[in-house]
Amino acid sequence: IFNDPIHGHIEMHPLCVKVIDTPQFQRLRYIKQLGCTFYVFPGAAHTRFEHSIGVGHLAWQLVKNIQNRQPELCITDVDVLCVSLAGLCHDLGHGVLSHVFDNEFLPRVDPNRNWKHEQGSVDMFEHMIKENDLLPEFRKYDLFEDDILFIKEQIFGPISNDSKLRGRGPEKRFLYEIVANKRNGIDVDKWDYFARDSHNLGVSISFDHRRSMHFVRAIQVNGEWQLCTRDKEVDNTYDMFYTRHMLHKRAYQHKTVKLIESMIVEALIKANDFLQFKGSDGKMLKLSETVEDMTAYTNVTDYVIQQIKLSNDTNLQESRRILQAIEKRQLYKCVGRTVPFPIVKLQKSEEEIQTAIVKCSSKFRNMHQLTKDDIHVRKVSLNYGMKDKNPIEHIRFYYKYDENRAIAFKKGEVSRMLPESFDEQFILVSSKNRDKEVISHVK
Question: What does DSSP say about strands 397-399 and 224-230: parallel, antiparallel, or unpaired?
Fold first, then answer.
């Protein structure tokens, strides 16, 4: 039993406990859920460990509710355990400071590598089973190869080359929408992080996942089974997506968080060639190469930051300087941001914008000649979870008097006071050089 500040006392299945008590799962204790956000919101220092336990718990709770309310769906106890395990293991693949590693560091140090933490989670899940000899434990609770495939598919999506889901048949396709809902984004992963992140950030939200839990129902829509909710929950559902947008705007994408994130990424890039991690065959791998070897990747946590700071290696001197500057609050100086605009209006990359600013500065003779080393540019995108789409249009609802017929709502049928657009982007421009004259010229 785990005493969780968000969900209270959580009782986990014995197999889930076996998974938790492995080095591959325990490493999540050392990876912060919100990456660099704790530099601005001091309470936001919670980790992927407690979030994963929370998601595993909510996954079990939701699938049990559906099992009890709709016995005709023939959801088995093995199905329930598989969904709970998928929730528990969905974030095993995160690296240094969570999304900082796969969304910011890897694309910059190796642009040709299309790797996301979901792939890492599947690889780490397989590695965990092998290293800890967990197959007999899985067999003990009647989980076999199809069930393990089902768990991996819930985390990553289709594993097979033909892009088809094979862990469960079409009659149970709705089970894939509980942990990571690729249809409309309503899933227990978000339910946990909304509650947990807002609690630790000290930010109030009105959305309550506990209410939503009671109205989820599996209904066949155009021959395909999917999760639906009550018609009266449409406003609460909009509130959920607004909560996501608000948390991104106020915390995750806070301008100072993004500046610190950029500085840490720069430090990691400069350190990449000199940080060595031992792989399964004894070969030493660079930080960016560890995603290819789960033995090495097991040791890639937020401790890498401390490893750089405590090292005496002269090759890491510049990375140490950047990390020390963050601790002294000697950050890049934000000189301005654009007004929000639709994402489709700007197709230029951050580097192209940076180059354009440098080129512009060369036209003024009385101005300090700026270089790329003086300027930092970040594009920040905000949306309701489905880029420019209205997520409600991808959700089906049902009436109390007709529980087995799914209906769709258009925006105009809900309210005239809803957003006109569901995405926006703005550009942050900062001076990396803290000299007052340079800051003035960048501005």
Answer: parallel
